[in-house]
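Example record used in the benchmark description.
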Amino acid sequence: MKLELPRFQRTQRARRLIANERKTAYLIRTLWNAAGVARRKEPAFLLLLVHLGWTNVRKEATRRWRNRKIADYLGIEDVSDILLARVLAGAVTSLNIRTANRLIKMQTGISNYYGAFRSPTDAFVLKNG
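Model output (structure tokens):
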């Protein structure tokens, strides 16, 4: 019996999912590369990167939720996208404002990670990060 992987179907939905996965990878990779060695060792930063891969039900909800997580990590209150990008670029100094602004405006998230698993995952990353 020959076991085959499913074949990729170039549907509009499949292309959107792949594009979203690529944007999410770009977001996480860009922040990782811009972070210094010390920041990369922070459990809170690692937890932020984990959260950036998660989605919520609607695209806009995911973007707002993700930006709230970034703002929480930076220790700031609810702010506009422009201000959040400025603060992010100021905190991660090798990240320029143009790139930070692009990251904040992107639709991202690749995993519909169920709520019941989120708190235990957070605890694990913070404990072992």
